[in-house]
Amino acid sequence: MTPGRSSLAPLRAAQAFGLSVAALTLGGLALVSGAGGSALGASGGAAPQFTVLVAGRDIVYCYYRQPCKDQNQRTGLAQPPNTDTVMLVKVSGSAVKVLSIPRDTNVGPYDPSRSKAEQKINSQYFRGGPEALLRAAETITGEHVDSYVIVRTDYVERVIDALGGLDVTVPEGGIEWVDQAAGVNLKLSPGEHHLGGKDGVLFLRVRKGFGDDYGRMDHQKQALTQLAARLRSAQGLAALPTILGGIGDGVETNLDPGLLAALQPSLGRLKLSFATLPTDTIPGTFNLAVNPKRLAQVWGEAPVSPAQGQGAAVLVVDASGAALGPALAQALRAAGYPQVQVQSAPVSREPSQVFTGDAVAEANELAEALGLPRLQGERFPVRSGEVGIVLGTDAREALAALRALGAAQAESPTPASPTQDAPSQPLETP
């Protein structure tokens, strides 16, 4: 799909967070409490500083539709358990940065004399366990990684149910995934659905509607933002026994979950940002090589000057149901952002957020000013140099000041420039 103003489809599957949901949930709970196998959380109440690997793996089958009794065995398998969802979570006090690593990323320099598949990061877990996967992530990113959290799909089912299920939007054409060998029979018509854990896991793993692996990773980031908001609620805290109960039963980790007393006060202070590992295709293969220069741009701390930030083009997608978009646009223009467009969208419960492709520093500036999560990805519907802001229903409270501004606008309306405010348009689906 070509990025454009009229396309909201890539934003409408915000609940699709795949295996990474449970991984980041469990890892995040331990992280915000300062837990870790090789704890880097400073003593004496100082802010924690450490990095953890989170990844999702499949259930292993020994025979047709028959899971192995020992889910940790490495021989006699019908199919090896790859880890197609791999992320680094870097904690620095209340700042939590998440880096998605594409499954086809090559570990170290490409070696044409070796199997292409065995050089990809998604094969490292089966070949050498969680420690091998951790070392591969270190090689690719250059980051020291302190701990790991690896989860199975059956654990994800339990977490989804504990968090109340998934509200999802199925794209035009619907979704059909039938695989009798794996016991899969998922058929969903276009539109809104509420899914329990079993169907939720299947929906999260299917690619239709996402375009490719990069699109799926972008949606995972959006939904993990929503998950973090849920964990702040009474429902999220009530799910802790299920989440923590997975240790040893669907979860491999060297994190210590015994230091969760500080969980509740920490959650309210988290500042989330997400990025995708930049890569280049290795000629003659489907393997991907990390692009170190671009990695520093999306994963680093590049500052932005006021002049640079205010020169960025901004797209406001108003799905708040409270007409907050025009008020935000007015505020942004008053703050020195002349290029602001507003697009109306159907009301959405997805969390409000700032997103971009390559304008990372500018997106950081706006996210900080608005107090919203910042997402960087490869398939968000923005142009190069543009920053998007999605306003969901949570913006009615999170950005309550906009309602008063909107009311003032309604009393003395001024015609909007056609180059600044775009009318509501029908959704496009991939």
From TrEMBL:
UniProt name for this protein: LCP family protein
InterPro entries: LytR/CpsA/Psr_C, LytR/CpsA/Psr_CW_biosynth, LytR_CpsA_psr
Membrane-traversing stretches: none
Domain of life: Bacteria
Organism: Deinococcus hohokamensis
Domain Cell envelope-related transcriptional attenuator: 82-231
Region (Disordered) location: 406-430
NCBIfam families with a match to the protein in the record: lytR_cpsA_psr
Start-end of Polar residues biased regions: 412-430
Pfam families hit by this protein: LytR_C, LytR_cpsA_psr
Family label: Belongs to the LytR/CpsA/Psr (LCP) family.
Occurrences of domain LytR/CpsA/Psr regulator C-terminal (ranges): 313-394
